[in-house]
Amino acid sequence: MARAQQYDLLVVGLGPVGAVLAALCATLGLRVRAVEKDTAIYKLPRAVQIDHEVLRLLNFVGVADTVLANSCPGEGYEFVNRDGEVLMSRYPPPGVAPTGYPWTNMFHQPSLEAALRGRLKELKHVKVDLGAKVVSIKQDDDGVVAAVETQRGTERVRAAYAVGCDGARSFVRQALGIDMVDLGFDEPWVVVDVKLPLGMRRLAKVSIQLCDPAQPTTSVPSSPGRHRWEFMLRPDEDHAEATATETLKARLAAWVDTDSIQLERSAVYEFHGLLARQWRAGRIVLIGDAAHQMPPFMGQGLCSGVRDAYNLAWKFAAVLRGDVALPFLDTVQGERAPHVAAITRGAIALGKIVCVADEAEAAERDRKMLADLAAGRPPPFPSMPYIESGVLDDRSAGKPMPEPMVAGAGALRVDDVTGFKPLLVLANGDAAAAEVQAFRARFPGISVASLDNAQHGQIRVQDESGWLRRMLGDAPALLAKPDRVVFGTASVERLGEQWDAYLRGTLSLPGSLNSAKPRPTPR
Ligand SMILES: Cc1cc2nc3c(=O)[nH]c(=O)nc-3n(C[C@H](O)[C@H](O)[C@H](O)COP(=O)(O)OP(=O)(O)OC[C@H]3O[C@@H](n4cnc5c(N)ncnc54)[C@H](O)[C@@H]3O)c2cc1C
């Protein structure tokens, strides 16, 4: 007989990804234990950019507004050569994105992590243990057992499932013997965050990659009152020396009056492009940096990890309810890995443009990029991919569903009402009543919204921008997964049949490591 588990889920590591996963799973009613080896939030410089889709997802755990209040909208991204010529650039379109949030947001990762930890304290069903390090993890047919070193001594924690959200050097990944596929990038950079005095004029409003072979440099306006610089290091450069105050100031002097700023924090990182070969072993799953790492040139490492957490959380709840079988958890890798791999390749491609230290090679790069620009050839800016696996094959499937407001309900978003569940959107709430009723009976808990003629029990949608109507096209209905990736647009009956096939694992998953539909997204 199966032994009763102390917890439904053990979350190892409480960085941003583990904190989001723990909060989401607790919101879904799972009994969660989250353990984190450190007591304080990681202080060194990391993410500064979060995109609108991820901000919208963070709304499900109640921290999007806090992040938004402590961030500035991103105003553009330029690659500039030593002579100040713009080799390529991308600027966000005017207005807000289809999710209702600014396209890109320059934020402060520790503030996000603090907001998430605050939220975890408010949630029932989750027990957080700080200063608690997982030192062994094993599994059998019934569940997972971990040895956790705490200040009270070593404790055994049993859970039905576990997730390694324990970062780049993941203990869990190593314990499972899972290796990483190297996508081919390895460059050391020193990263420095500075605080700007109150009243100081904002430095450049756009993010800049200075493609100067003498000193490849990134300059990023980060959260209010802060600015980020990143400098590529020479292969022989001493890392401790690179973070010494005098060395940092010497580098910064090319950009700013160093007497007018305050050095806040700095660190040397090796930027890699790595992808775990396997994301699930039995009852244990890897997500976030434990499953993938990318250079920061697209500002997507944390965003990708948060997307993983949203892809995974509701699937655990479904497995625990017995709605789907355990192998269904492989859809996380099937859906997320091609997306992450495409973004990582894009980030590596951008890195290869800026990380050129050879004078002749840089001159040739500049000549070619400027010639292409003059000839009107598109610059090599990678597009953000869509999800290709675990979705239907219509033109909207795999894209993020726009987020409309609830009609007549002020600032209430549709996600605020549905919660973290699948959402069926009808073009006309009056049509196909029998099909909708059958759909609801088959998939209890799914929310239903409609653009026109909302009936009793349907959310009346206000789609002022028209994004959602355009996405529906001629289709009578759209089904979005809990993470708001569009499953497909079709008749309610077909969506029901295909969703059932997806949950039973019989929907073919066409994605592979090499495929992910590209899309134009401003950075
Ligand atoms: C310079 C730089 C710039 C970046 N810029 C961006 C950006 O602009 N946008 C973006 O989206 N991403 C960016 N990133 C990436 C982003 O910071 C990471 O992807 C993100 O922090 C990963 O989150 P995580 O929760 O997966 O891992 P982590 O944040 O590393 O958290 C893992 C946690 O697990 C804990 N842990 C480890 N082992 C154990 C154990 N055995 N037991 C218990 N706990 C354990 C650790 O203490 C840690 O708290 C950047 C990264 C760098 C380095």
As residue ranges, the low-confidence spans are 511-516
The name of the CATH architecture of the domain at 7-72 and 107-181 and 275-348 is 3-Layer(bba) Sandwich
Largest sheet, if any? 8 strands, mixed
CATH H-level homologous superfamily name of the domain at 7-72 and 107-181 and 275-348: FAD/NAD(P)-binding domain
Q: Span between N and C termini? A: 53 Å
Helix/strand structural class: alpha+beta
Q: Strand-residue fraction?
A: 25-35%
Query: Can you tell me the CATH topology of the domain at 7-72 and 107-181 and 275-348?
Result: FAD/NAD(P)-binding domain
Radius of gyration: 24 Å
Mean pLDDT: 94
| Main CATH class of the domain at 7-72 and 107-181 and 275-348 | Alpha Beta
Characterize the overall form: globular
Percent of residues in helices comes to: 25-40%
Query: Total number of helical segments?
Result: 14
How many β strands by DSSP? 27
List of distinct ligands in this structure: flavin-adenine dinucleotide
